[in-house]
Amino acid sequence: MLIVRLNSMEHRCEDTLCEICGADKIFDLPDEIVAAAKSKNLILFLGAGVSTENPQVTPSRTFYQTIASSLGDSLSASASFPEVMEAYERANSRKSLIEQIYLRFQNVRGFRNSVFHSTRFFHELATMPYIDTIFTTNWDTNVEDYCAATPFISGQDVALWEVAERKVLKIHGSISNLGSIVATSEDYRKNFESLSKGFLGGFVRTALATKTVVFIGYSLRDWNILNLYGDLIQDLGIATPNAYKVSPNAKLDSDLSTIKPVATSGIHFLRALKERMVSEGYLKDDIYEQVEDILDLTHTLDPRNAEDPINPQIYPNVIYAWFYNDGLRDALDRILRFRSSGQYSDRARLHHKLHSYDDMIERAEQKGLLTDAAYLMGYWDGLAVPFRSGLNNDNNHEADEDKSHLVPLFQYDAEYEIENLSQLKAFLESTKDRDDEPTRYIREMVQDLPEGFVFNHSSELSSGIFYQGGSA
């Protein structure tokens, strides 16, 4: 068996015997799926095979097998998942069944190997903003934790569906809400009744009828999918919706003629779709490495962190470099914090944000709020990092090893880009006696402050220049 280091979610190889990549079979990505992704009409329907019941998570025994073995020979070998859970509940108690489920998740979360294998799929999915609707029968919170999805469980929740950017419908409940878990045959019966009528049922049926659905992490012999999906589309009474099933053995285990097989692994499917969507205006995941590298440099090149700091009472204009650095750092930090949402992988969205910040900079300068303007210029340059990185990737530019020039030391009216502290000191010395608007503005700000003070610009801006385009 190939031993794989677990220090990267980006593991890839071409060894067909690799326990991780061996199922990454070559396949043709259906154009219909690409078109659905472009129009955000693609629903992923996720099963436990992409998370906690991945064979690499607990190779020796699935949760189903664990519970079944505890019941001895009292059940048929062909008993379905909910039948096994029902039998365990009858033999013990509901509380005992939920405790077993809870302990299973605690064990998965407690070891790096199981965490690695149970979350790889979701790390890949995170940076695919065109996939914003996910249905799942899984109890785990991986979609919420790693893909910034808002969970919806009940019909009351679904009434607020459009509020969230990326959402996950938890059809069988969630481990974060133990009372919502659907596990036994009786649970399944009640659950299907709720999906067959009422607001939640209407929502699910409409989605299945009007969207392209891709099942991943299931065997289509799974009791829940055969009954849930099969009965729901029969209940629709209209033309069969378009649906696909992704699995290395999709052609062998497809029992529903309405579902088209895609024979590859779930992660390989996501990577192929992601690569295709780059040509449609989305950015490669490499941008986040560039952002992380430059964020590290913002600390190194911050004038406030210099061994011999520049005295702002002698050179007050250094404060503009401080605030520019704050804006740059805040933007880069936000991009990394929101990586799981995928919103910064969307080139068109970034382009819109940059235009909005252009307007904010102009308003700040018109109002004479020059420190805010310096902060906003830094923020603009931070937002531009993934955008520019994406353009460089498109043009096959080699990676720039020295990125220090991407963290300039901002000054108003500088005729050249200031790239290091020596250049900044020289510029401030040569211009310390000037009497222009930026200098007068900042001198007035610092004149009564004590020696040795340090400023940081917060993310809050003065009235009248706020970003008007949604989230920053």
Folded structure, characterized:
With 472 residues, this protein is α/β, with parallel strands linked by helices. The chain folds into 2 domains: 31-278, Rossmann fold; 286-446, no CATH class. The chain is 48% helix and 6% strand. The chain has 18 helices and 7 strands. The protein has helices at residues 31-38, 63-70, 81-91, 94-109, 112-126, 142-147, 155-158, 185-196, 198-210, 223-236, 250-253, 266-278, 286-300, 318-337, 347-366, 370-394, 421-431, 437-446; strands at residues 42-46, 133-136, 150-152, 167-170, 212-216, 243-246, 259-262. Strands 3-4-2-1-5-6-7 form a 7-stranded parallel beta sheet. α13 packs antiparallel against α14 and α15 runs antiparallel to α16. Mean pLDDT is 86; it is low at 1-8 and 395-402. InterPro entries: DHS-like_NAD/FAD-binding_dom. Keywords: Plasmid.
Give a short summary of the structure.
This protein has 472 residues and is an alpha/beta fold. Helices cover 48% and strands 6% of the residues. The chain has 2 domains: 31-278, Rossmann fold (3-Layer(aba) Sandwich), CATH 3.40.50; 286-446, no CATH class.
Per CATH, the architecture of the largest domain is: 3-Layer(aba) Sandwich
In percent, how much strand structure appears in the residues? 5-15%
Poorly predicted segments: 1-8, 395-402
Count of discrete alpha- or pi-helical segments spanning 4 or more residues: 18
| Biggest sheet layout | 7 strands, parallel
The total tally of domains equals: 2
Order of helices and strands: HEHHHHEHEHEHHEHEHEHHHHHHH
Helix content: 40-55%
Q: Label the structural class.
A: alpha/beta
Note the gap between the termini: 46 Å
The CATH class of the largest domain turns out to be: Alpha Beta
Shape, principal axes of CA atoms: elongated
Named CATH topology of the largest domain? Rossmann fold
Mean pLDDT: 86
Strand order, sheet with most strands: 3-4-2-1-5-6-7
The Rg value, from CA coordinates, equals: 27 Å
Number of strands: 7
